[in-house]
Design goal:
Layout: H1 3-27, H2 35-44, H3 46-66, H4 71-78, H5 81-93, H6 99-117
């Protein structure tokens, strides 16, 4: 991959991870509220809008990235966001990293590396 493609991929990875983590954080506010009240509270939270902005940026970066690399490689590289989001979930939300989940995610990362290397 070219330096520009690598930069676009890294920025895309950051945006998709920030998007998921921001929306998760916003979704955990007002756990006792129900229905429309809960949705209203979430929509008032800045993290919802940060997540939306991150996904809009991710979409644009993804389009740019796709213009530079073959689709088969792009999809594989894009699958590494699973690893980034899993690590973010562990760091920011203390989510469990079970042996099965960790092993499966590492297999994805190893597979991407092997395909990208070949």
């Amino acid at each position: 991959m070219t330096a520009l493609a690598t930069l676009l991929w890294v920025l895309n990875l950051i945006c998709v991870t920030v998007g998921h983590l921001s929306l998760k954080a916003a979704a955990t506010i007002a756990p006792d509220a129900k229905g429309l009240t809960r949705w209203t509270e979430m929509l008032k939270d800045l993290r919802v809008w940060m997540g939306i902005a991150a996904f809009v940026a991710e979409f644009l970066l993804w389009l740019a990235f796709l213009s530079l690399v073959p689709l088969s490689l792009a999809v594989l590289m894009g699958s590494l966001d699973t690893l980034a989001v899993m690590i973010g979930g562990r760091i920011f939300f203390a989510e469990a990293l079970t042996l099965r989940r960790t092993f499966s995610t590492l297999l994805i990362a190893i597979g991407v590396a092997l395909v990208g290397w070949g």
